Amino acid sequence: MPVLRKVNYMFIFGVFNLFTYFLIQSYVSNEYSFMTPLDKAIPFMPEFVWIYQSLLPVIAVTMVLLVKSKRLFFNTFWACLATTFIIHLFWISFPSFYPRPDFIPEGISEALVQISYDIDNSSNTFPSGHVAFAWIMFFGVRDSQKAKEVQGLARLYLLWAIGVSLSTLAIKMHYVVDLAGGFAVASFCFYTMRELIKRYNWYATEDTSYEHEDVQNSKKQSQIEESL
What we know:
The chain has helices at residues 3-27, 37-41, 49-52, 55-66, 70-93, 108-119, 129-142, 145-149, 153-170, 176-199, 210-227. The radius of gyration is 20 Å and the shape is globular. It has eleven helices and no strands.
């Protein structure tokens, strides 16, 4: 599957996701609160904003460069799209609000947190989109050929997905229940799409990966050399 084609798919997804994200923010009201004693006990740690804001570049690198199989790419892509629809439906049906801490930015991390607050008006907390998409990226990389070739890559993504999840709590963007909701939606969408793709044999495996193309090219080259 050509890289440019994957870029096109992800560009369309990104535009659609961001457009609907900000559209929902402009219309929904803040009606629900999921605050628990555990949420209140978690300290505000602005340094976590860096891993929180790593989501978009990691999605781009993962989908364009690491997920090479066409079947796995579309498994991950459709899971992301289905996740978008589900979490947006929840945001419209149960618009929740997270009260933001009152602070004066004194460093780069705190300034980036404030920018994050300005972009996100906290009226769409459940389930967490950051958590959902981070775990979908982990699922996709874990099943990739690249993870088999590069030792520790899947573990690195696992730690990253956990870090993104915890960062939403540390910078006071989401409730604990938002994390559970995001993980549940991600798991449901990814594995449901995988089952549908397998059941109906969409994107047949024998002709959809770079690895297969490399093998076929090697065979053709060997045949040419033998004929000479």
